[in-house]
Structure to design on (480 residues):
């Protein structure tokens, strides 16, 4: 049976949600929270989203989507334009090539994976930004940011997993 | 159906893989190119950034409101708990301020008398513009805010941004309905300042830490912990006398400043137009965002010459 127009539209809308959710996360992570100290160490939420979707649904998180997300982060956060795009594309590339390893693993393993991947991403960002400004940037805030991202990881990861089960079930 | 799709798949899959790989590498190259371009042409990148921020400003404006309301409610609750202690503190402050008021009145009269004696030309009056902070671009690499006021409201590049506590930063990029503030803690912030009582000149340099450093301090200077730091007005970017912070530590490696502003408290800020053009060229349109990195970098040099009369 050929799917009707509405089912196709519905499918399309569902398939756009990983990208849409990540864009939303980028914008939300810019909102001033008015808690002491939070501004400097806000977690790398978009990275968590890219990590998750590249492992579980790479078809819905193509490289150009990753590129757009990275650019948006750069534009909004005030980092040199292109830095986050490169870092996120690199993360994407690494996970995509190692997908077999990540897929179907237990939660602690994917958390461990994120521990490694985000450490690499943070290091890479630090190297790029330091090179861009031709001076060494204090790494303390970055380390805190990394630890906070690591601690908060289960929350968005669980949310994405549920989202996937409810809205993006492959038939 | 199945018989036909199999050969299709056999040819299509490698091609798709190839395209996929090409797209990936291409995008990486484009991202690198953008970074190089950003290094070479800061004005262009700034304009693009302003456009993107402008486009998303309405969304950020809406999202930031409930968060602000929530934090206000929490603040309110905290204040209710501390109301007794706060009352006592306020009474004490009030007593002290009344003394200051008397002193200020006396000084005001004295000042106007002396000014009339000296034929003193008063400084231009500052125009204020209040704006809401709609984004605090958190992160370890850049300290900036986005305001919900832009070119249309009269915000221009290089203007000072202050709160009741003190200097917050300067306007760095202006869109038509939003603008970007570089906080004084940001890596790229350089502000000529004076350390009070000794009138020592220096540059307050942000390094992405909570407490920015003083650089270009004269070796013989007598800066002590607790000295107040205000803008010096050298270079013409900021008016003199805006409170910045107090010296928090003095050592051989670095002299740091504890700022008066609290970043998490920044909800409304004032953009101040002192009518000083100084180092920044006047703009003519939104598309023509003025100034460039070189101009800004020139700031520290400006402090050498032309002191206050």
């Amino acid at each position: 049976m050929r799917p009707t127009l509405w089912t196709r539209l519905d499918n399309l809308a569902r398939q756009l949600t990983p990208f849409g959710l990540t864009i939303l996360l980028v914008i939300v992570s810019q909102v001033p929270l008015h808690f002491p100290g939070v501004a400097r160490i806000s977690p790398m939420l978009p990275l968590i989203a890219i990590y998750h979707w590249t492992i579980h649904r790479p078809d819905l998180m193509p490289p150009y989507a990753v590129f757009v997300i990275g650019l948006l982060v750069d534009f909004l956060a005030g980092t040199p334009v292109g830095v986050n795009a490169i870092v996120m594309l690199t993360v994407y590339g690494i996970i995509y090539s190692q997908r077999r390893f990540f897929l179907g693993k237990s939660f602690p393993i994917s958390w461990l994976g994120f521990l490694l991947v985000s450490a690499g991403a943070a290091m890479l960002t630090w190297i790029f930004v330091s090179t861009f400004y031709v001076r060494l940037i204090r790494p303390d805030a970055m380390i805190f940011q990394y630890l906070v991202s690591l601690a908060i990881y289960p929350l968005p990861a669980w949310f994405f997993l549920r989202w996937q089960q409810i809205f993006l079930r492959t038939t | 159906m199945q018989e036909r799709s199999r050969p299709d798949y056999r040819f299509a899959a490698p091609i798709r893989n190839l395209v996929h790989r090409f797209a990936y590498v291409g995008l990486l190259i484009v991202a690198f190119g953008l970074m190089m371009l950003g290094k070479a042409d800061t004005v262009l990148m700034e304009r693009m950034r302003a456009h993107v921020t402008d486009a998303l400003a309405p969304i950020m404006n809406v999202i930031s409101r409930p968060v602000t309301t929530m934090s206000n409610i929490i603040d309110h609750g905290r204040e209710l708990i501390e109301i007794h202690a706060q009352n006592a503190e306020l009474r004490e402050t009030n007593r002290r301020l009344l003394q200051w008021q008397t002193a200020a009145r006396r000084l005001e009269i004295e000042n106007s008398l002396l000014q009339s004696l000296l034929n003193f030309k008063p400084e231009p009056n500052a125009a204020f513009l209040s704006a809401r902070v709609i984004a605090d671009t958190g992160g370890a690499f850049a300290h900036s805010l986005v305001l919900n006021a832009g070119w249309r409201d009269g915000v221009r590049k290089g203007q000072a941004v202050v709160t009741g506590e003190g200097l917050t930063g300067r306007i760095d990029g202006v869109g038509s309905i939003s603008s970007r503030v570089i906080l004084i803690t940001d890596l790229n912030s350089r502000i000529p300042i004076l350390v009070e009582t000794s009138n020592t000149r220096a540059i307050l340099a942000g390094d992405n830490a909570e407490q920015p450093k003083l650089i270009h301090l004269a070796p013989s200077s007598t800066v002590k912990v607790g000295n107040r730091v205000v803008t010096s007005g050298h270079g013409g970017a900021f008016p003199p006398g805006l409170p910045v912070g107090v010296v928090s530590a003095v050592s051989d490696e670095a002299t740091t400043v504890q700022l008066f502003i609290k970043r998490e408290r920044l909800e409304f800020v004032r953009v101040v137009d002192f009518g000083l053009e100084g180092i920044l060229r006047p703009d003519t349109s939104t598309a023509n965002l003025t100034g460039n990195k070189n101009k800004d970098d020139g700031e520290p040099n400006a402090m050498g010459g032309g002191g206050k009369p």
